[in-house]
Design a protein that fits this description.
131 residues, alpha+beta, 37% strand, 2 helices
């Protein structure tokens, strides 16, 4: 049996304003839109990893237990892009010694908690992240 029999993973989240979310995830974060199904946009986060944004009539209820984390080598550049786009953050990137990461949090237009981070140790998802 193939060690990884799955082709991809897509996390779908409901959004109140698909166009505002497109500015956050597409323009500010720079995620490529790979499929536009009208009321659903699917963005590539990494090879095989996708985020689906689904227009919903009722406003979604953001829950801080859900964190959408994006791993990148250049946390500082992403922070600058989000700030320039007017996305709310919890402050500049910083090191978290407990988890050995460099990160910051932000809020998307629906109040979902976004984390942008770099691992400060080897990570199987992308060894280039380690420092």
């Amino acid at each position: 049996m193939d060690e990884q029999p799955y082709a991809a993973a897509i996390t779908f989240v409901p959004v109140a304003d698909l166009q505002a979310s497109a500015v956050c995830y597409g323009a500010a974060l720079g995620l490529p839109l790979v499929l536009d199904q009208g009321g659903i946009h699917i963005y590539r986060v990494a090879r095989g990893g996708y985020l689906g944004l689904c227009q919903q009539a009722a406003p979604p209820i953001a829950d801080d237990r859900l964190i959408l984390t994006i791993v990148t080598a250049d946390v500082d550049a992403v922070y600058q892009r989000l700030v320039a786009a007017g996305i709310t953050t919890d402050g500049p990137p910083r090191e978290n010694p407990r988890y050995r990461i460099y990160h910051f949090f932000a809020r998307d237009p629906d109040g979902y908690r976004l984390e942008v981070q770099r691992f400060l140790h080897p990570f199987d998802g992308d060894e280039r992240q380690a420092r």
